Amino acid sequence: MYRKDWVKRGYPSHRASAIAAPPPPRGFARVYHLSRADHAIDNIKKGRLKAATFSDSNDPFELSVFFAQKPDQEKRLQRFIEETSRTYGMVCFSEDWLDPVLWSHYADMHRGIALGFDVKKTHLLKVKYKRRRALTPANPKGNDVSRFLGTKFESWSYEREHRIMVDLRKAEVDKGLKFEKFGPEVILREVILGPLCDLELNAVRSEVDSRHANVRTFKARLAQTLFSVVPDEPTIPFR
Questions:
Q1: Predicted TM-score (pTM) above 0.85
Q2: Beta-strand relationship, 186-193 and 177-181
Q3: Residue by residue, what is the 3-state secondary structure of 206-223?
Q4: Residues near 29 by Cβ (< 8 Å), separated by ≥ 6?
Q5: ∠ CA(103), CA(107), CA(109), 5° rounding?
Q6: First-to-last C-alpha distance (Å) of the chain
């Protein structure tokens, strides 16, 4: 139903949500945060997303895009890494939700939920995937932060990841955890129940509609002819 609109916005025609929801407005990108169902429902109710710290990461090479060859460089690099880790957290998104591996790794083995957001493009950092680490700059500075936060080993490229960098000094705090609030730069637009999610769709839709405007809530299924996760069309609330 919306496929032509997505293509006009510069997205590929095979986007998973191209039949389920209109594309984002200009200046925004539609990205998806996958999680366990209970975490997603809590996010919906409280209008926020948990910011991961680098100690939470499942990639031991986070903040390791650079390496040093000399002891003095190593010391400066470690100080910069430690300061960056204390200062910044991240909220991670994927460009799309059709890859079944994403659901297996991040959405409780397909029992979870994908939340689709319109995020202002200037608010997003697109991850770049590299085969090799780079020699550290002589004096790492603030403008190197995006390289620290936005570079991963090429094997992670299936995630097609984008990140919001969260200044932990300014983030909302709840029980020691840090959060990025929904707002004019981070707008909820889709709620997609995984193929094995056992929550009742209408109950979730009612919860979403009571708190957020213009959100499409529907269920996903496994595709019949492709290794993809796709919208379960009868559950899409066309408006």
A1: yes
A2: unpaired
A3: HHHHHHCCCCEEEEEEEC
A4: 95, 118, 119, 121, 124, 162
A5: 70
A6: 11
Q: Rounded to whole angstroms, how far apart are CA atoms 82 and 63?
A: 9
pLDDT at 77: 86
Instruction: Please check the confidence at residue 140 and state whether its pLDDT lies above 70.
Output: no
Spans of all domains in the chain: 3-235
Residue 234 carries which DSSP code? Answer: G
- Least Cα distance to 179 among 64, 91, 62 occurs for 91
Q: Which amino acid is at 108?
A: D
Distance CA 223, CA 173 (A): 40
Contacts for 229 with CB less than 8 Å, ≥ 6 apart: 16, 97, 98, 99, 100, 103, 110, 194, 195, 220, 221, 222, 223
Give residue 223's pLDDT band: very low, low, confident or very high (50, 70, 90): very high
